[in-house]
Amino acid sequence: MLRRILLAAFCVTVPLQVHSQAPSAEAFLRELYAPYLTGANQGQNYWDLERFFAPDLARLMDAEARDAQRRNEVPRLDGDPFVDSQEWDVKNFTLSVKTEGPSATAIVTFDNYGKAKRITLDLVLTPAGWRISDIKAPSGSLRAVYK
What is the CATH number of the domain that holds 127? Predict the structure, then answer.
């Protein structure tokens, strides 16, 4: 009987510990944007979909990219969604994050080649950690690209 109680307690607390050990939404985004701030025109491989995007958005992006490849066409996403550009020289970077339970909204601002940019990122907490569920930039919504 005691063994069953201990096993039940273990099953309840282990998932809670895994979620509580996930880096914060802010830490996830700081790590994501770090390469853009080096001045070496380095960015992230945003096609590493599972690393950055919520599962449903990653599936949409992957399906469209595969379809474009079959048609021998360029995918709809034709630039880096994290900086809303094909080229960048990021300066004056700021990040603010508001977290509410398993979701968060972040505002990223920076100058790209002297032009001010403001990007809003919607995030969700998944079993793998924080992932982006949408990016809203001057060019539009990432999720809308795949509707």
Answer: 3.10.450.50
